[in-house]
Amino acid sequence: MTSLDTTALRKALLDETDLLADLYLSGDPKTPIPTCPDWTLANLIAHVGGGNRWAAAMIADRATEFLEFQQVPEVRRPRDLDEADRWLRASARTVIDNIDTVGSEVPIWTPFGSPRPAEWWVRRRLHEATAHRADALLALDREVNIAPELGADGLSEFLDIVEKGPRFETPLDEGTSLQLRATDTDDTWTILRSGDTITHTDSRAPASLTIQGTAIDLYLLLLRRVPADSPQLDTTGDLSVLTTWLERIKF
Fold it and tell me: Domain count of the chain?
């Protein structure tokens, strides 16, 4: 499966955040975001930038438990458009700078089980940016022009979270399996039930349901950003497997 190294992940976090900021500057902050009900583009920007600053603050504090948002300096989006633009762009850089200050292997609290090395937060914040830039692009009726390798990495990261995080209901019934095949990166994710969770491999053994599409379309499918009957997706097998998955996993 496609894997991005630390340098690539860090660059992508900065680049994706900048591209999201560009959308904010060029769009109407009041634009509704259908894939995030009750949000506008301004709310989306506040969520991403505030989340970056929250993660950066936990890293700086070497936090081993949840940090309340109101305790985070400059966590709120500025009202002025240009100030909000600079605030968002700087928030991603702050995550990386704080990791370099405390050390990439220092354990930091996460919402998904035990603490993880500080560097883990780069990938997590990157895919907050990719997912929400997709939200903004869909709302603005623009092509979701996220690089295939980022879509593939985002999908892998999502599955890692579901597999290791205790907050999700097991998305597959006993005896069922789901296989995702990316037509542009040649990646395969075969997802199996394992006790009360799941596991995934790159095996191409037959599955209950196989879905083929671009890496970004598969990623957005699991994030519930594109419909299961999207013409960009090709499905073979038991469609109830996907229905069960989507009913149980909301992220």
Answer: 2
Buried b (16+ CB within 10 A) or exposed e, 113-149: eebbebbbbbbbbbbbbbbbbbbbbbbeeeebebbbb
Domain with 134 in it: 6-146
Contact assessment for residue 153 and residue 4, using Cβ atoms and an 8 Å cutoff = yes
Where is the domain boundary, 117, 146, 175?
A: 146
CATH code of the domain in which 186 resides: 3.30.1050.10
Query: What CATH number is associated with residue 106?
Result: 1.20.120
pLDDT number for residue 166: 67
* Start-end of H helices in 108-147: 120-139
Compute the mean pLDDT over every residue in the chain, rounded to the nearest whole number.
95
Which position has the token pair 């100030």? 83
Give the pLDDT of residue 2.
73
| Residue ending a domain, choose from 80, 114, 146 | 146
Element (H, E) at 218: helix 215-222
Please report, in angstroms and rounded to a whole number, the separation of the first and last CA atoms in the chain: 22
User: What Å distances lie between residue 233 and 138, 211, 212, 227, CA to CA?
Assistant: 17, 7, 6, 9
Q: What is the pLDDT of residue 114?
A: 87
Residues 6 or more apart whose Cβ sits within 8 Å of residue 141: none
Please tell me whether residues 113 and 168 are part of one structural domain: no
Q: Hunting for tokens 């390798």 — which residue is that?
A: 149
Q: Does residue 156 fall inside a structural domain?
A: no
